[in-house]
Amino acid sequence: MDSLTIRRPDDWHLHLRDGEMLSLVAPESRDFARAIVMPNLVPPVVTGAEAAAYRERILAAGFAGPLMTLYLTETTDPADVVAAHASGLVTAVKLYPAGATTNSASGVRDMEAVRPVLVAMEEAGVPLCLHGEVTSPETDIFDREAVFLDRVLTPLRKAHPALKLTLEHVTTAEAVAWVRGNDNVGATITVQHLMKSRNDMLVGGMRPHLYCLPILKRAHHRDALREAATSGDPCFFLGTDSAPHPTHAKEAACCAAGCFTAPIALPCLAHVFEEEEALDRLEGFASLHGPAHYGLPANAETVTLRRTAPYAAPSRVARGGLSVELFDPGHPLHWSLR
Ligand code: NCD
Ligand code: ZN
Ligand code: ZN
Questions:
Q1: Range of the structural domain that residue 193 is part of
Q2: Is 140 a catalytic residue?
Q3: 90: which strand partners?
Q4: Tens-place pLDDT, residues 41-94
Q5: Ligand 2 centre distance from Cα of residue 285 (Å)
């Protein structure tokens, strides 16, 4: 197969940031028609009014398809959430356990404190996206997702069976099994978790540009994700979690978490799906399962991926004093949209 025409993809988990960084990275998601935009700004996007203002800044920066989210806090007003969703402004609400990841300090410490919001969301049909990791200091960082499934997600599923859940950036075989074994739940998978294991990050030296949260796991987990993504199972869809940080924040003694993948996500995915002999399932994963989960139509327009001579992925984007290193796939790419 030398070319592949698919419905235009969407990105169901994207960080566009704000200010200078937003201007730099918004055009880099040009391959995607729409994206669920994460609300973990400083300060976070908590209210409908804040989401409306952020949406305007994103459009002005050059990304045409933002689907907005609200950052769930313990003081979030249920009525504001329901109204923002009913008006079409907001697609979903995002739950960050406090302290789990970048800019999560205003997140949730006690699930009981957000119970009234969850009840209102369940009633009104507002989806909940989750960063699925516990933050208990005694829990090993490599176990934080699996422990979250038992300690938080299973009780949440029981308490709110009609609440639509998206488990973001799944990284383990346990999460894949949990998603398959429960109703009314979808899961996003990132490019880096399909391509890399923790050995890629740690053997022979620490590679800060592969450090993201949830952290890369053992190779057998990567393989479980590859199986899930290429299986055709509509529970699983693309969320790049493209998470740019300035070069100085990544190349630091205590480096920031996040991989910047948006500009090369689709050529990387085509590479993975070809390796798995599943190119015919790329459209489902990148373009069809996500909209179906969120009750939205798939994009009408198509894009064509073409096989090219092997080329090196670009290594950074930069403007003025700001630079961001791209995720390094570790080998040349040979699919292109242009
Ligand atoms: C994300 C970020 O930098 O905002 N980082 C990451 O490693 N994935 C936050 C997140 O999605 O958890
Ligand atoms: Zn996250
Ligand atoms: Zn993210």
A1: 3-336
A2: no
A3: 68
A4: 999 999 999 999 999 999 999 999 999 999 999 999 999 999 999 999 999 999
A5: 20
